[in-house]
Request: fold
Amino acid sequence: MPKTNRLHYAWVVAAVTFIVLLSTSSIRAVPGLMLVPLQTEFGWSPGAVSSAFGLNILLYGLFGPFSVAIMDRFGMRRVLVASLLCMGCGAALVPFLGAIWQLDVVWGLFVGLGSGATALVLAATVAGRWFTAKRGIVLGVLTASAAAGQLLLLPVLARVSQELGWRAMVFVVAGICFALVPLVIGLMRDRPADLGLAPYGEDGPPHPVQRSTGNLFLTPLRALAAGAANRDFMLLAGSYFICGATTNGLIATHLVPACVDAGISPVVGASLLAGMGVFNMIGATASGWLSDRIDNRMLLAIYFVLRGISLIYLPFSFTSLQGLSVFAVFYGLDWIATVPPTVRLCTNIFGREKGGMMYGWVSAAHQLGGATAAFLGGVARGDLGGYLEAFITAGLACMAAATMVLLIGRGRMRLAALAG
Reply:
């Protein structure tokens, strides 16, 4: 492709993806703000409410590999539009619920499945299809948008909930999803070849890609079976299970209730999460840059050790706002930094074509861990009267995850490839 001064359309696709991931992350921010109001208004137990939130997180992750297969067949634009409409309609129904099983169905099942296409597999797919040069830094920025958006929108949603009620807050989330539909229809494109382009960073003709004709259900399952027989995949998935448990499941869902238990207002707790979002942007972007230069296993090990230390410190930081602020900075830098090196390891192990779907299954393990921790965190709050044991256990689990990632590739001839 001749070099010109025109902006490559890859950057437009990346910008649309950034906005979608940033905005739809509000779905992930809602559970921490709804747990206490639902418990107070309906008398539902923390464990019962957390089970619906946990189901949402689980399906959000499990649908990821299947969403990659569906995107290969029908295109990213169509899948994203359907996903946004599904999330918007599901969120709009929540204020009319009156029974816990309805929360399970609408928020757990409907919104959970709808949000699967806007999981981080979308960032991995866009970066893999549209970029050859600067892929690491693009993936880092898109990753940061998914987590930082959740945290940056949280204070706004908390204020709406405080001033207008939790139902108004959920309507705001539904409106965000609906507002994104015209943007995706107008600007999102599936592949560079659709516009007669090569991926950014390559010269020459487009890379025509034949759309997948494989079974939409069996193709991801065959990929999972291949992963289950691969030791490195299992180590990576196990570490990511712990990653999800210690981020989406525990902190995103239960930090605000933990603040409430300590006599700190929900708005202040939400503001701490928002502060994490700022540092998360820095940490995830830097991680994308580092993943192109440093052994990805070592990066992951360092991230998990630092996260474990911060979680063990957390229960003792609620005595002062300064202590919580230290935690927010320390943890925020580490929150989603694990994604770029994990995606790169998946690509190195399984190749460029299969890397996205395999990352989808690793990400599913992440969400399974998140669902488990979301549920058990609620049980801990109800049965043990607080989160001390949950935070300490999560910190120790991170140390185990650090050991697991260091074992990837050991005793094999692929060490140099994995490091790159």
Notes: The first helix runs from residue 9 to 24. The mean pLDDT is 83. The chain has one domain: 9-195+218-419. The radius of gyration is 20 Å.
